[in-house]
Amino acid sequence: MSEKIAQQINAGPNLEACTATLEWLEQSGNHLLTLADSSYPQSLLEIPDPPALLYAKGNLSLLQIPGIAVVGSRNASPQGEKNAEEFSAALSQHGVCIISGMALGIDGAAHRGALRVSGKTIAVVGTGLDIVYPARHRELAHQIAQHGLIISEFPLGTPSKPQNFPRRNRIISGLSRGCLVVEANVQSGSLITARLAAEQGREVFAIPGSIHSPLSKGCHQLIKQGAKLVDNTRDILDELDIASSPNANPGQHLPEQDPLLEAMGYDPISMDTLVERSGLTSDRLSAMLLVLELDNKVTSLPGGRFQRIA
Question: Which of the residues 4, 18, 251, 264 has the least number of beta carbons within 10 Å of its own beta carbon?
Fold first, then answer.
């Protein structure tokens, strides 16, 4: 027995922490699940190291419906976030629960997409449930707790620590029938989730991107390693044998594009190049780009470049 474990045993239970947890459990919507509870998700029981305890806040019934992990870069491009939100909304319309980690970037966009249409989303976090991380997602966390579910294996009061997130990732993949990586560089933590998903016997999906974008290289690496390339929700639903909802379009992924957006492509583009591609004058293009920016379909970048986000 290690000295650290012996010290913990001799110290006895942390009465202050126990009291705080019991008070937390008295609040509406808060739960503590053990491996023996009927509400404990069966999919987690199938992985090698299921968490012994799950702290939960929100709708426990979401643990029992088919789920898909949607993950990716924290520093996502506008187009990447748009893809994550649209894919998640479309999948959610089919009764699928969207599972992610409530991080900045792709995670947050995935949760927002599900909340927009059904509320079927689970956020697996790497802190205690009395802490919101990142802090700027406080409102998002509130919405998920109201309409979806937030879970953690970490006791109340546990702060954000780097070592917590790989452990969090195994729960994201373990809850899911498949894992969709939307956008990631080769060092992205979302590739850990994808690897864990493969090891747990889950399907791995990846959205391809520009060969020039560092944020696409992680997805391209996964595809080379056997992940399934997807460009619409039908690819995922068919692979996982999830029945299509009569009220949803299984081919849905991105909204229809107008000719100028088509001319822009998906990579950052300069005004001079856009003039050549479109045949329009720079004055006319400037006016059209302003309208598209106001409609949140295009964003301006440093150096006088533009990129579409829809």
Answer: 4
